[in-house]
Amino acid sequence: MHINDVNCAGQARARRLGGAVFAAAALAVSLVSGCASQPIGERPASDVRIDANAVQPSKASRREAYEYHVLAGEMAIQRNKRELAAQEYVAALEYSNDPALAKRATRIALFAEKPEMAYRAARVWAAAEPDSLDAQRTATRMAIANSDAEGLGVYAPAMVRAAASPDIGYRLLADVVSGQPEAADIAIDTVRDMAERDSQSAPAQYALGVIALRYERSEVAARAAERALAIDPTWNDAVLLQAGVWIREGETEKAQALVDELAGNDASRAQYHLTLARLLIEADEDEAALSEFERAIVLQPDNADARYGLAILALSIGDLERAETAFKTLYDKNERADDAAYYLGTVAEQNEDYANAQHWYQRVESGGRAFDAQVRAARMIYQQGDLPGAQQRIAELRETYPELTDQLYAAEGQLLYEAEEPRAALDIYNHGLDAVPNSTELRYGRSMALERLGKIDDAQADLRAVLEREPNDVRALNALGYLLTNHSDRYAEALDYIERALEAEPDNPAILDSMGWVQYRLGNLAQARRYLEQAYSDFQDAEVAAHLGEVLWTQGQHEAAREVWQGALADNPDHPVLRETVNRLDP
């Protein structure tokens, strides 16, 4: 008997065992043998989707096919094969329109970052549960993510209908279809059509206006605000939409005066100022936004959202004193205490008060920032001059967070690298890769240590390995381009990597520095200077200063070069690249 005949006979015997025993046994045998006579037919290697209309299988064979794909999907999940799990679950939908299955398939595909498969599953889910807000909202989100205008025209109205009220539905819609710049036209056109059909609905006009503002279509937003106010002149949200339009038109004081006229108790008026603050942030009016946060706090001192918004904005613009005061108040009131402690650590770190920073980071007990706070606390030990103590703390964290071993080895390697101990850093990265062989973070870090040790070929190999697994990894693209620029004459190849990185992050100072440096190597001094000046204006880094000064020197502008170098040397007198550049060109 042929080996496949033996395996298929085994499957036949397993079927007679019934239920779950059959399913597990048949799945195990089929995965090993690739039996040609499985009830679902032979699966094409290039496409897991099964055409249910190609044949007319019996009810039993359809049930078996469904069970096969679900079990294969579960096995893939257990093996952390997210894409395969999504493929199997979506394939199972060929044999069932069960909403629970469709919902799970959608979420698995989203987790696998496969929006096309998620959309296929979400359409089944939305069709099976037309009154489910969750289903219609997910289908709407997937339609906009896949730039499907026709689908958005179906699911966006269904989502509004499924909501508890049109007001709630339109507000949710505005949030769901925002944040997709490549689909701005589709979003605006769809909601405009809905607003025209629902012409007497102020919430419909409001949603259109909000979406248009977020996509910087001020004219559309202005017309929508006008219509919303005409429908309901007393609706405060329509007034706030009008204020948002005026802010985008540069009439901030006019918008603030409009909001000042709104009626309501102190709590309501505090919310109006809070909304206005957020509109001002979106328009890059940071000082005006801070003022609105403060007015909201005066009206409602216990408004934690207003105080937190004030603190975050103050921190982002470098007003550390105001940020610290607001975060301390939040912490003392036990409002967002873990977030407040984390950012108080950040403030202290920026003030180079490393002991105080460690104190605050260690107070972060839970929440999404707890792990990062503990790693930062270890880093603060290093900043206070105790490298062994920092390493010991990271080793303890590896016991506490075994699932984050790679990140902790990477953090320790980074400390050693910064401490000018590249050999010790390399050892740590090697230990980490022994434990987590596929870690991109560790391989990237090891490449930096290898470069510092002069092992350029090995450093390139690590970066190329990262890009083989993740072709669009911006850090690796930039690092490889910079490595080739500094350690080879393959400038055209280096330029290609850096261009790809810069396309992904056009304002990143590190990538701008790399681009300026490779342009200098290519002899394009004007372009090199432009990129390096942009980088240095955003990031006062010693290495960027070295590069900019060298370009200026080569252009004959020696005094300008000396000015850049001297400014950088004042803060970084021992920086190796900066010192080598100055000694070589202006000894």
UniProtKB/TrEMBL annotation:
Keyword flag Membrane: no
Ranges occupied by TPR repeats: 270-303, 542-575
Pfam hit, one: TPR_16
Keywords on record: Repeat, TPR repeat
Gene3D superfamilies found in the cross-reference section: Tetratricopeptide repeat domain
SMART domains listed in its UniProt record: TPR
Highest taxon above the source species: Bacteria
This protein's name: Tetratricopeptide repeat protein
Organism field: Salinisphaera dokdonensis CL-ES53
